[in-house]
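step 3/5: co-fold with arginine
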Amino acid sequence: MSDKKNSNLWGGRFKEPASIEMANLSRSVHFDWRLAPYDLRQSAAHARVLHAANLLTDVELESMLDGTSQLSDQVLSGVFSPIDTDEDVHSSLERGLIELLGADLGGKLRAGRSRNDQVATDFRMYIREQSFAIEELVTELAIAFLEQAESHVDTPAPGFTHLQHAQPVSFGHELAKHCHALLRDVERLKDWRDRHNYSPMGAGALAGSSLPLDPQGVARELEFIAALANSIDAVSARDFVSEFLFVTAQIGINLSRIGEEVVLWNSREFGWVNLHDSYSTGSSIMPQKKNPDIAELARGKAGRLIGDLTGFLATAKSLPFGYNRDLQEDKEPVFDSVDTLLVLIPAVIGMIKTMTFNTEVMAASAPTGFALATDIAEWLVRAGTPFRKAHEIAGECVAFCESKNIELWDMTDADFAAISPDLTSDVREVLTTEGSMNARDAFGGTAPVRVREQLQNLRGRLGIA
Ligand code: ARG
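step 4/5: write tokens
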């Protein structure tokens, strides 16, 4: 290691330098550089441990902490950055520390740790921090839906199954469903932290260290719940990566379903929503166009988020335990997923917040398509008819209306009576959208009185009571 700029971490055993091809393939610093702040924080904690173990003197510790903090500033300001010969973030930062402190002191920090526990620790810290940022955005999106829902509790809209008119629903109920899905995503992120916020430090290469280190102390200092209890597991486990990638993919799937809904609602055929100019795009050729690009990108980005997950799962499958270089492939999918969500969610929030609804269109369409047929059946059931028979009678009403090209409420008393003597004129009380919605008043149902309770409860869960 005669070259001062050489950050190669081995050497003793090797007579020849790495080939250029090997170095090119091996290099990860162009993407793992974003772990630098975590690596430096970890280094400071490790220096304190070495000091506590009498492996650094008071003076050396002070210089070491001074060095890591200077290097942090230099990294932040861009004064220090990776060079071509740096393989990864760890070797680059070690080079930086040696440049600041000299090889004797700078070289001491490597005692008792390996890049194997180092990278696993950095990466857990990185994901932990990103989990908070993503959680905040997902919560903000849930709040945007909640606020829209609160304005539309009494707006009827067609509810769908098979994308066909099924039963009228409160549009507030329809919007609020997204809050529940997004809140589960938030819980999944918290759950990730409960399960994976543990420290691999102290595992060394794989077997732990013969130096008197303090893994639990480092874990505490780096805000982990505790140190991992098995050093082989500590350097080998990557379920913390796959689980995080599942959560981000699931968020992507939820966003894609929101996107699909907006695309549909925004179509001329539906005509339910108006997108704000600043959250839609025009066409370069068709002047009349206003396109829901955010919604489409939300739909499309789910593909890459799922790809990040499945790609990494394929990498992890059948890997032997202990560190294997394949594991270096864990970072880019995570970085890509994080970057994707950090630009996607704010755009979706803006789109949802500024969206307005054509409530008359929805309300007019709510009872059409024989969406009240179930109400006839259930009315009959309440009057004592077995459901099987009631279903048939209501079906005959629908067939009759279809043949006459009318809606259920256009049927005369005689029309009803001709189908079944049980169908008295009282059945009309459920043949309105409001009657239908109000009737579904059990817990979780669409009756506005229940939806108001639901939204109140969501306010509490979202911390905006
Ligand atoms: N850059 C490596 C990674 O991301 C760091 C660990 C390298 N360890 C090793 N034994 N070569 O996985």
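step 5/5: annotate
Residues 28, 32, 88, 115-116, 119, 323, 325, 327-328 surround arginine (CB under 6 Å).
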